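Lab notes, practical 5.
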Amino acid sequence: MDATLYYFLGYFDALSYILLCLQLFMLPIRDNIKKIAVYALFVTSFSYMMRIIFKLPEFDLGLQYVFLVLFLRYAVEIKTHISAYVSGVGMLTYISFQLLLFFIYSISGIVPIDVINHNTGAAVYLIQIPSILIGFALTGVLAILHRGFTFITAPPHDFLIKDDYSNSEKKVMLLGTVISISTMALTVTLLYIANPLWLAITASVGLILSIYLSIRSDRRDAIKNVNVYRSNHK
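Output from the prediction step:
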């Protein structure tokens, strides 16, 4: 029963955060829905093997991040540094839901403090199921309202064109990528030494910085488009 529930909830868990990653940056979901479904099944199977069969949960989240970056790079055809940025922001957003629920439940005495290191059980499902629903709900609301960050060019990206990191736009994206990777690395470390307070602080700071950089990039992109429009209609 635990194995069946793990696969069932794990699949929708993976599907929820992958869709959220894409929708946050208004990247195509419908065109890649079959790839996303297959990838979510792969991640669920990998997670089950790491956590349940091999008893190596400390490798699960970090490798899921790496796999998501590779999926966005090769399946969705987004440049690697942008894939790392999108993956980091999306996963940190999703982790924030889980941490918020964890603190609410733990303060209320509903779940034990060490639940973050559990793989199955009622306490885990109390966090996992609402997180899945929140992820799907946020993705749906953003899609219906046509909201999200728009500064990332729709894939497939042209990999033959090398990025010029001397301009400010690329520097901001590169900084965001470094923040995403660093925050995910710290999050994985803090998760498996069972330090929920610092885990929450790290995830929150990383997410806030990433969102700030995304808003700044969106504004810069909007200004650039306005200037191009004006120059073409003089």
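Observations recorded by the TA: The first helix runs from residue 2 to 24. Helices lie at 2-24, 33-53, 60-74, 80-108, 122-145, 168-191, 196-232.
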